[in-house]
Design goal:
The chain is built from 15 helices and four strands. The chain is mainly alpha-helical. It has one domain. Strand 1, helix 4 and strand 2 form a beta-alpha-beta unit.
């Protein structure tokens, strides 16, 4: 039996320049199917966000699992898709898209450029990330508490308010602080140092769940379907209670 001789061509690029490395990674990645977030990871704005997060001891995972593998705290690691969801919900008050079609934010060029734009300050990106991570921790605590008085009824037996309403809650907290439902992206800039209190998060979550109950009853829809609709966002923005609130700044 004859032994076949084969050769494999390998090109090795040695560089300490991050920009050169990113260009090589981007060119190589186009050869095989990869997630949209990975294709965007080498964009200059993504590097700017990562460096800004690092300066505040938060970790923006441009390279999937990079910071997890280096032992950084999981509650301070933010992925590209998660940040996109947070921004689309909080800055553009579109939690329905963040909840139901998160991948479309990165796939469509116009959507991507709207979310990752020089018009949005790096401080606002960090604000969105910190807000969503704080809400995750808060809602987990509420859900595990036997003393919780949330208006959960039989309609919730196949749904979790923790999993499905978190982006809506992020948006509503901004609505409460700004005291208006038609806020603009520039308005979010004015509250980038806000530290939401447990009391505000608790009362807003209670109200959101009640509004959810009212909406699905009105539309005769299962909760898992109702909360994904744009009409649901319109409904809660039209019925949320507004008033002047005191808040604490971390700046």
């Amino acid at each position: 039996m004859l032994k076949e001789e084969r050769a494999i061509l390998i090109k090795i690029v040695v560089t300490n320049d991050p920009e050169t490395r990113d260009r090589v990674i981007k060119a190589t990645n186009f050869q095989t199917p990869i997630p949209p977030a990975s294709l965007k990871a080498t964009d200059p704005i993504q590097l700017d966000i990562e460096n800004f997060f690092l300066s505040h001891e938060w970790f923006y995972d441009r390279r999937k699992n990079y910071y997890k593998n280096t032992g950084k705290a999981l509650d301070r690691i933010i992925s590209i898709p998660y940040l996109a969801q947070s921004v689309i919900a909080i800055v553009f008050h579109e939690p329905d898209i963040a909840r139901s079609r998160p991948s479309s934010i990165l796939k469509k060029d116009n959507d991507y450029k709207r979310v990752f734009s020089q018009k949005i300050s790096l401080e606002v990106y960090l604000f969105c990330a910190k807000t969503m991570k704080k809400l995750e921790s808060f809602i987990r605590g509420v859900a595990s508490s036997k003393a919780s008085n949330l208006p959960i009824n039989e309609n919730w037996k196949h749904a979790s308010p923790i999993r499905i309403l978190i982006f809506h809650l992020g948006m509503l907290l901004v609505v409460k602080i700004l005291n208006k439902t038609d806020y603009k992206p520039k308005d979010v800039e004015t509250i980038k140092g806000i530290d939401f209190s447990d009391e505000l998060m608790n009362t807003t979550l209670y109200e959101l769940i009640q509004l959810t109950n009212d909406y699905v009853k009105l539309k005769e829809l299962p909760i898992n379907i109702g909360i994904k609709q744009k009409d649901f966002v319109t409904y809660i923005l039209g019925h949320v209670i507004l008033n002047n609130l005191n808040h604490k700044s971390t700046e």
